[in-house]
Amino acid sequence: MRLYKKVGKIMQRGRIEEIVYMRSFAMLAVVMIHTSAMTYHIIDPSFGSYPIYEFLNRFFRYGTATFIFITGLVMFYGYIDRPLHKGFFSKYFRNRFMYIFTPYVVWVVLYEIHTWLSIRQFDINADYFIELFQLFFQGNTFYHFYFFFVLIQLYLLFPLLLYWAQKSLWFVRLLPLIGLVVQSAVYVTDYFYSWLPFATSYFFSYLFFFNLGGFVGLYYGQIKRLFKIRMAWLFATAMMLIGLLYVYMHHLVRWDLNEFATVYLDFMYMTFSSLSAMTILVVMHFVAKRRFNWFRQLGVYSFGIFLVHPMVINYLDYWLVWEGSYLFHIGMVLRFMLTIAISFTIVYLIKRYIPYSAYIVGR
């Protein structure tokens, strides 16, 4: 019996309804980071509201890692029993190119147009295209594109991981440890040697989250049976405590209030984000049973919302950054709520009325 069939026996095949709710939760976290970023960086630290914005901007950093975790879970869960042959690879890479890489290219162009219309402070010449080409392959043409560049790398790496997972049960069992070792090695070596200038743009920095998700996907049938309300409360409590510690450590590092190495902060982020991803999975198991359709729809459109929302935030900044203590805070709340609502509407309209919308905002 082939190994992938043995591995497949430990899973109960079927749709994982929790995933779409996890995407919703992670999407809200990402939007929270980006809508609070400006406030967090411009507000005076002596103001009483500063700790609130610092918490909002740092605590919700688990959003990107959770998306990577979800990707690993879905990929291994869905593909572990697929025979690896020419037809598989052809369809696999064609789909990734059409529905991941193509939207990435489309939105890189749209954001360049948006940036030019907004500031008009750069010339479109040979040097511009050379720099654009370099930034494109770093995922740095706009501040959120690193995530899509990382996704593309993980999709390229996945067939190799899948091949090993089908060949060796030991590889499956060691999958999270392999990711942990690689990601930890990147943290430590980059701290001492600074060999990776744009570390957040490369899959090495996220491999633990991806492999942990893959491990959960492979053993999902067994793991799901452990989900209990008490377990959800325990995970949520641990997530909150570790998250508060992470935010506090970041505060100390940012304001030079402690001399510990910044690499410790990287490890704290990895601990907090992986715990958060697992917590959200457990909690969403119970949320999914209640079928909050409006919340579920955010997850359905999360890929497109991720692409669209920074542009929406930029335009809202023209109208919702108000002077005055209370007005300022009200404007920040409105920025978050309207960013979600407008981004969702844009993606919904594109999917409904524009032909070949999957090449613009994904499936």
How is this structure best summarized?
The protein is mostly helical and 363 residues long. It has 17 helices and no strands.
Which helices and strands, and how do they pair?
Layout: H1 3-9, H2 18-42, H3 50-59, H4 62-79, H5 86-119, H6 126-136, H7 146-167, H8 169-173, H9 175-193, H10 207-218, H11 220-224, H12 229-254, H13 262-290, H14 293-300, H15 302-320, H16 325-353, H17 358-361
Helix pairs in contact: 2-3, 2-4, 2-13, 2-14, 2-15, 2-16, 3-12, 4-7, 4-10, 4-13, 5-7, 9-10, 9-13, 12-13, 15-16
Spell out the key features of this protein.
78% helix; 363 residues; single chain; 17 helices; globular; mainly alpha
Overview of the structural elements:
- The chain has 363 residues and is mostly helical.
- The chain is 78% helix and 0% strand.
- The radius of gyration is 21 Å and the shape is globular.
- Mean pLDDT is 88; it is low at 8-12.
Please state roughly what percent of the residues sit in beta strands, choosing from under 5%, 5-15%, 15-25%, 25-35%, 35-45% or over 45%. under 5%
Helix content: over 70%
Count of DSSP E strands? Answer: 0
Unreliable stretches covering 5 or more consecutive residues: 8-12
Structural class: mainly alpha
Number of helices: 17
Q: Could you spell the SSE succession in H and E letters?
A: HHHHHHHHHHHHHHHHH
Q: Rounded to an integer, what's the Rg over CA atoms?
A: 21 Å
Net shape: globular
Mean pLDDT: 88
Task: Please give the largest β-sheet.
Answer: none
Instruction: For the record, give the distance between the C-alpha atoms at the N and C termini, rounded to a whole number.
Output: 35 Å
